[in-house]
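ARCHIVE CARD
Drawer: 12
Card no.: 0347
Subject: one protein chain, sequence and derived structure
Cross-reference: see card 0346
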Amino acid sequence: MPTHRYLLHTLFLLLVVTLLPIQPGAQAQPAGSALDPVGSARNNPFAAAQAEAQFLPVDQAYQLEVVVEDRQQLRLYWQIADGYYLYQHKIDAQLQSADGPVGSQLSLPTAQPMVDEFFGEVSVYYYNADVRMQLDTAVNEGLLSVSSQGCADAGLCYPPRTQQYRIDFDTGAVEEQAPAKP
């Protein structure tokens, strides 16, 4: 006749075996291994959201090229990554010469209207934005400050960003300056 302890042990094993999921071809893996089904992506309800939440660094999402068109005009061209957009109303540029601020006007292309959860009705650029900056007077050189802000369709909004460029209008050289450390 089986002992009380033997019956409990057998009952426990039956319980464990019936509660284990049966997967064809499944093999036991050491706990914590890369193939451990506990915590694996297929068993993690948040895995899809985590996988989609891989956002580009801001300098890859919005690549700005500054070109000297002539002594009184600059071209500011953003290449915008797929799934990202740039706010039209957040684009601004200022040129500082040795004599002080240089007056200018930005010519912004037509943008796509959208309703934004933070700013309401706005206009945005997808894929690219080609902006012209017309200067009031010709200058030899200066420091250009360009401000912009954009978001990813997946929900991340980057903080406003300012980039600075040293411009030599005589040679057409444009050199991005390292951001100032806070």
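Annotation on reverse: The CA atoms of residues 12 and 18 lie 10 Å apart. The mean pLDDT is 80.
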